[in-house]
Specification:
four-stranded antiparallel β-sheet, about 35% helix, nine-stranded mixed β-sheet, Rossmann fold
């Protein structure tokens, strides 16, 4: 198998349950009974831990003491940081089960804390207070909440969370009035939106009256990832005896507990991040390319205006003439659609021409001629544009036009094409390419085109008159003469 294809389905050994419901629906007590039966089923000796946001711990503490012989441990708080810290401590100290009641409050506290921080910063700048969160705030808030989600899923700890239930609303059409109406179509846990998907066992608790007149707590399994008790319902009657209540809860949820494999751990890798190839400003490669192209075009415009700032006919004509000389077009729209490499080289020519016109910088008179530079013999050439090379590129592709680069042998440079060759005789693609390259080599026989800066040799002068080697932009010369296109 490869690096990513590893064995899955090796089992899960840790209960990740969630209860949601309205007030007094039995969430806390049922969660406690499930926690006690989980501790007993797996033969754990650790204490029951609780993150208490609603003050329920004093009421269930005596039951925990009787059932486990240990006190109920935990903290009464609504801080998100406290919830996460308690969870980590419970795992480290070997707690049997962690009960979070309720997970709704730390979510609200996290939002309130973020808004308070924003308002403190605004107050320091003399700005008015904000009364609610805005779209751009949700990114950092959800990123912070994600720390709890990752811990909940990946910790080696049985965790049961309780949360208040909220309605799921949807616009539906009233068949009688043919008007849209907002209706409740379901329930969800009042917490961070995506966290409601995380529990492997999710139960909806409702308070109802039994036909015999007694009050019961209905439990509906909204989701069981093992599929053993999914969508099943039951009614828990209060027996006034925690042992009987524990037995009833255990009987209903036991199929899910039995499917858990003690010691098995199937964490989700939350550390790996997709490489988006963005810079510190969030720009990817395409965005950086577009930005650089915009900058080069603005630079070209700026230097043209520096030389001809007015809008007279003569000045417009002068700018168009220079564009035509450098880019072979008088259309600015066409210039905007030229490749970035050509724009870069063209910008250097524009700047040099403007500097010369305004007397900003005089051309160097002591630039060494190509005759005084050490150059190598052209041994390869492009089949399409005739670009010369002193060696074969790694990808055998011309950097100027992406054409095929092939060797130039002596026969290519000296052999004349037969004059009496039949015109209707079919030619292979390779023979055509060979002939084309031979013509390109023959075209520059005895003439040395080269860059004054890096010494790169050419069989034809580039359109801009500048070297096309990345980062060079040197001027192209023939011997000691400057060629057309260079300043």
């Amino acid at each position: 198998m490869g690096k990513l294809m590893t064995e899955l389905g090796t089992g899960q050994g840790w209960l990740k349950a969630g209860f949601l419901g309205l007030a007094k629906s039995g969430k806390t007590y049922t969660a406690l009974m499930l926690g006690l039966i989980t501790r007993e089923h797996f033969g754990l000796d650790g204490p029951i831990a609780m993150y208490d946001t609603e003050g329920g711990s004093p009421y269930i503490g005596p039951t925990v003491q009787q059932a486990t012989g240990k006190p109920l441990l935990g903290i009464r708080s609504r801080s998100f940081d406290d919830m996460l810290a308690l969870g980590m401590e419970a795992e480290q100290e070997g707690a049997a089960v962690l009960i979070v009641d309720s997970v709704t409050h730390p979510w609200r506290e996290l939002m309130d804390a973020y808004l308070q921080r924003v308002n403190n910063a605004r107050a320091a700048k003399g700005l008015s207070r904000r009364t609610r969160l805005e779209f751009q705030d949700w990114g950092p808030i959800k990123e912070t909440w994600g720390k709890w989600t990752d811990f909940y899923l990946n910790s080696k700890l049985h965790i049961i969370v309780c949360g208040r239930a909220g309605d799921v609303w949807s616009w539906e059409t009233n068949e009688e009035t043919d008007r849209k109406e907002l209706r409740s179509v379901g329930v969800k846990m009042k917490t961070e939106t995506e966290f409601g998907f995380e529990p492997s066992l999710l139960v909806h608790m409702e308070r109802d009256h039994h036909p015999d007149g007694t009050l019961v707590h209905n439990a509906t399994v909204l989701g069981d990832r093992f599929g053993l008790i999914d969508a099943k319902e039951t009614a828990f009657k209060g027996h006034g005896d925690w042992k009987k209540d524990r037995a009833a809860v255990g009987q209903f949820f036991m199929p899910h507990l039995q499917a858990l494999q003690p010691g098995a751990h199937a964490p989700i890798d939350t550390e790996v991040r997709t490489n988006m190839d963005v810079d510190e400003e969030g720009n990817n490669e395409l965005a950086r390319w577009r930005r650089e192209k915009t900058i080069v075009l603005e630079e070209i415009k700026g230097w043209l205006l520096k030389a001809w700032p007015g809008s007279t006919t003569s000045e417009k004509s002068a700018k168009a003439d220079l564009l035509e000389e450098i880019f072979a077009t008088r259309s600015w729209t066409k210039v905007e659609n030229l490749p970035l490499s050509i724009l870069r080289a063209g910008f250097e020519v524009v700047r040099e021409r403007v500097e010369k016109k305004l007397g900003i910088k005089q051309p160097d008179d002591d630039v060494p001629s190509v005759d005084n530079q050490t150059t190598q013999r052209i041994t390869h050439a492009c089949e399409d544009c005739g670009q010369g090379f002193t060696g074969l590129p790694e990808d055998e592709t011309c950097f100027a036009c992406n054409g095929k680069v092939r060797p130039i042998d002596d026969a290519d440079q000296t052999q004349e094409e037969p004059k009496d060759k039949p015109k209707d005789k079919p030619k292979s693609k390779r023979k055509k390419a060979k002939k084309k390259t031979a013509k390109a080599a023959k075209k520059t026989a005895g003439v040395a085109y080269a860059c004054m800066k890096c010494g790169q040799q050419y069989m034809e002068v580039p359109q801009t008159g500048l070297c096309t080697v990345a980062g060079c932009f040197g001027r192209i010369v023939v011997g000691a003469e400057k060629v057309q296109g260079a300043a």
